[in-house]
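During the reporting period the student researcher (J.K.) took over the structure-prediction task from the postdoctoral fellow and processed the backlog of single-chain submissions. One of the processed entries is reproduced below for the supervisory committee.
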Amino acid sequence: MSGVRFFGLCLGPLVALGCGRAGAVAAPPVVPASVPTPAPPSGAHLPDGDGATALLPAASAARAPFAPLPELGPATGASSDARGALALGSPWGYVLPVDHGMRWDLGGKGYFGAPRARGGHTGVDFLAPLGTRVLAPCAGQAHAGTTDGLGLWVHLVCPVPEALGAGLHASLLFAHLGSEDVGAGPELVAAGAALGSVGKSGAEGPYIAPHLHLELIAHASEAAALAERHAPDDVSDEPAAERFFAALEARCLAPAGFGARKAPARCGRRVDPFVALTCLTLGKPSPTTARWPVGSASMPWSEVYAASGFDVELGRAAPPAPARAPSAPVAALRAVLLGSGD
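J.K. obtained the following structure tokens:
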């Protein structure tokens, strides 16, 4: 049975368990062009599903309503692997200028769907030293805020490439930041623009290494994606996410034999962001080792993902990785203070 088909068989039990955790973002006020809508008071708190609160972004200066973003058409000069399977081009970029693998420390495992006290992990934790720039993988609208549990966060909404679903938009959440380079009100950002920096806000445990927590949810429209709050307990399904993942499966996962070893790559409305980035990105940085103590919390991507059509560590533009023996189980990590940065 292929790993991709295994995703579908496991999806039901994973959704039943939930993939929630503490924290949720507050959506920015959506103001239609013709009917003005009063915004909630600046700094108001909205209740989350698990009893936490989400801070509404502070009021921003008045500005004209945003027009819908143009859709990305089919990529020209698209790249493909040796089997001619991957023809999505390179419409997105990577989210960090470095690749130190996935966070895997005494504070928890950072893969999508990893066990958590209140359900599975809702995103992927990209290990990186404090202060590392966080980059927009696509052009879109972004706004920032603060929430208990998520710390400083940036919410970015951008169109999905047309080859993966005409009209679909991705809602991307970047959390635990140390700083933010966008404001509380929605603003247009270019692909590759700095959104902020890696930090440990909202994840202050002494055994949690600094990292970027990234989530991805697909919606049928830009407005719906802007209204997404990434509520931790919302494991409801979303037809747009089904369409997006089905296209990823048909155009990338199945042809390249690409999949996750430890959990399904979709949980309700959420899609594994590393899977999506790998399929949409050709410019992934080469893997390097972070200096101690950050590097002691690094897990190679190949421990969690596998592909027959390319090398998972190098990205989908690379040739297949040579066969290798399974690694030994991860030993208990040293109880070191990982929050000191690089």
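The committee noted the following: The radius of gyration is 19 Å.
J.K. will present the remaining backlog at the next meeting.
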